[in-house]
Amino acid sequence: MTTSILYIHGLNSSPASQKARQLQAAMQRFGIAGRLAVPALHHHPRQAIAQLQAAIGERGRPLLVGSSLGGYYATYLAEQHGLDALLINPAVRPHKLFDGFLGAQTNHYSGETWQLTPDHIQALAELDVQHLADPSRYTVWLQTADETLDYRRAATYYQGSHLDIQQGGDHGYQGFALRIAEILELAGFAPALWADFDFSTL
């Protein structure tokens, strides 16, 4: 199966987010940009999952790389398809975290405005994975100073996974570019592609 990556952005994010752009730039630099999919996800979970299912169908068995809410989506899809996943400050049971947040939302990158409704919350609840079939398929990167999500929830939920917990940082995950080589290796790309490349230039 062709080596590839499906990057899954978070709530009110887009392919224009910093992590997505850095990953895209690296893979472009190494001549493998065609092996990366970064769909602009619909704000409603059911439509977003349909987009992601289609992307998996096109790519076979990609490495799922999910950030924040994208990590929640990646977990559902990894369980469904038996895929490996790298999760970056992932949301855990986000349907339980939206009290007081219903109503108008704005995408930070596109400027799109939309309404967060109880149906969004119900759709998120339908994606909840109670127990991971094989935690070893997951690599989870957490930073303790995440200002949006409590990293301890993910550290508990993903016990048995390849957990990497860094002190400090933030929800966007500081130092992401310097870890792109690890992502490419997880996806099965040959390290010779990026030999001597300085990822801090991304």
Q: What topology emerges from the helices and strands here?
A:
Elements lengths: L4 E4 L9 H12 L6 E2 L7 H15 L3 E5 L1 H13 L3 E4 L14 E4 L6 E4 L1 H8 L12 E6 L7 H7 L4 E5 L13 H8 L15
Parallel strand pairs: 1-2, 1-3, 3-4, 4-7, 7-8
Antiparallel strand pairs: 5-6
Biggest sheet character: 6 strands, parallel
Counted beta strands: 8
CATH architecture: 3-Layer(aba) Sandwich
Strand sequence of the main sheet, in spatial order? 2-1-3-4-7-8
Radius of gyration, CA atoms, in whole angstroms? 16 Å
Estimate nothing, just give the exact number of structural domains: 1
What low-confidence regions span 5 or more consecutive residues with pLDDT below 50? none
Inertia-based shape? globular
CATH class: Alpha Beta
Instruction: Give the DSSP E fraction (strand runs of 2 or more residues).
Output: 15-25%
Question: Helix-strand pattern, N to C?
Answer: EHEHEHEEEHEHEH
Q: How far is it from the N-terminal to the C-terminal residue, by CA? A: 29 Å
Q: What structural category do the secondary elements indicate?
A: alpha/beta
Mean pLDDT: 95
Q: Can you identify the CATH superfamily?
A: Alpha/Beta hydrolase fold, catalytic domain
